[in-house]
Design brief:
With 72 residues, this protein is α+β, with helices and mostly antiparallel strands. It is built from 3 helices and 2 strands; from the N terminus they run βααβα. Strands 1-2 form a two-stranded antiparallel sheet. α1 packs across α2. The termini are close together.
Length: 72
């Protein structure tokens, strides 16, 4: 799975939310959960300023893997 995707690194800063990151990288804020899942951070409350957030792309491969967790 990891060989099929590109991982974009983002340093979490003041004003960031996972939905904003999802909109920026996927053009769809409702896909925030993909970033949360990939980083094992279920909500923004689990993110601190300065954390490196990994954003998997393309999103369709990441979503496919989210439903096939046993393949990791």
């Amino acid at each position: 799975f990891l060989s099929e995707i590109e991982i974009i690194q983002h340093i979490y800063s003041v004003g960031d939310t996972m939905s904003k990151l999802a909109y920026k990288h996927y053009s769809d804020a409702t896909l925030w959960w993909v970033i949360a899942w990939f980083n094992s951070k279920p909500t923004e409350f689990h993110c601190k300023v300065g954390d490196t957030i990994l954003i998997p792309t393309p999103v369709d491969i990441a979503i496919s893997q989210a439903y096939n967790v046993s393949d990791l």
